[in-house]
Design brief:
Blueprint: E1 2-8, E2 11-20, H1 22-38, E3 43-54, H2 56-71, E4 75-79, H3 83-91, E5 99-101, H4 104-112
Parallel strand pairs: 2-3, 3-4, 4-5
Antiparallel strand pairs: 1-2
Helix pairs in contact: 1-2
Length: 114
Amino acid sequence: MNYEHNVKGDTLTLIFSGDLIGENNGPELVELVNDLLNKGVRYCFVNISDVRYINSSGIGVLITILTKFRNKSGELYLINPSEHVKKLLIITKLQAIFNIVSSVEEAQEQANSL
């Protein structure tokens, strides 16, 4: 998996592409999130539109990041998951846990309403 990140104000945007397999980048991502949460970041927008496949470790990384944000009164938004990823989220009933939105603008609107 490849990822890019940027921070604007209190929002971290992560853009993932390829296969989300947590063993490869998971610890690095969690460390990045911890550092940014300690610097006041409250929201995380995770664009997963270019993710083809997620394994259980990848799901674990997303849940870990979600938990860290919620523990600091923040929120995580999954942006525009592919059809395959949407099906996986439904099968695992994780669509009830994650905020799933279709665009960055929609995520920003929801974050602003909190």
